[in-house]
Amino acid sequence: MKLWIRRLVQSGLAVVLMANLAPGYAAEAHMYRCLNANGRVYYSDVPGVGCAQGRHDRLTRDGIVLDRPVDEAELEAIAIAKAKADAKEQRKRIEQDRHDRMLLATYASEDQIETAKQRRLKTPQLSLKLSLKKISIHRTRLIELKQREATLTERKKPIPASLKKDIKAAESDIARIAEEIEIKQSSLDQIAGRFDKDMARYRELTVPTKRQ
């Protein structure tokens, strides 16, 4: 009887002790996550398991990050990236200031910018117009050649080698001129775009901002 009572008392004390420790234990319950040099993720109750030299994140049992040690290399990389971004932004501001001064020194009005734009576009526009005329001529010729080929085919007559050669040459010329037209049109768009951008910036610099 005494032995049974002793065991019951010991068991009761153990339950009481665990009940008193449980809240503190739950509050401290957490786990660790780390990434080793090979990119493998480890989870453990004790830091250092799997990647003792790696950075450890302390998590709750539900996976919520409690804290993350400072990574000096990462902080240095962030600082370098920020310095580069700041330097790039500074160069951009300097270039914009230089361009603004050039605009104000070159033009006295928006009309002058528009006049300069049309003068700059004149030669490329003439070149584009010539290419459009050339491609029209070649397309007309190709249509005529194709018609001759169709007529011979309809009459079940052989197609001369010279006709096939002319058709191929016409198609090649059309493809080449079409590429030239695309390049010239792109150049015109870029020129016009630069002047339009200058016009918008000139207005920002010379027209007072309207108060709300």
Short description:
The protein is α+β, with helices and mostly antiparallel strands. It contains 4 helices and 4 strands, in the order H-E-E-E-E-H-H-H. Helices cover 72% and strands 8% of the residues.
Descriptive notes:
- By secondary structure, this protein is α+β, with helices and mostly antiparallel strands.
- The protein folds into 3 domains: 2-69, no CATH class; 71-106; 109-206.
- It is 72% helix and 8% strand.
- A 4-stranded antiparallel sheet has the order 2-1-3-4, with no helix packed on it.
- A hairpin with a 5-residue loop joins strand 1 and strand 2 (41-44).
- Helix 3 (110-154) runs antiparallel to helix 4 (161-206).
Oligomerization status of the protein chains: single chain
Tell me the strand order in the biggest sheet.
2-1-3-4
Per DSSP E runs of 2 or more residues, the count of β-strands stands at: 4
| SSE arrangement, N to C | HEEEEHHH
The averaged pLDDT comes out at: 81
Beta fraction: 5-15%
* Domains, number: 3
N→C terminal distance:
95 Å
Determine the fraction of residues in helical runs and give it as a percent range: over 70%
* Main sheet attributes: strand count, strand direction, barrel closure: 4 strands, antiparallel
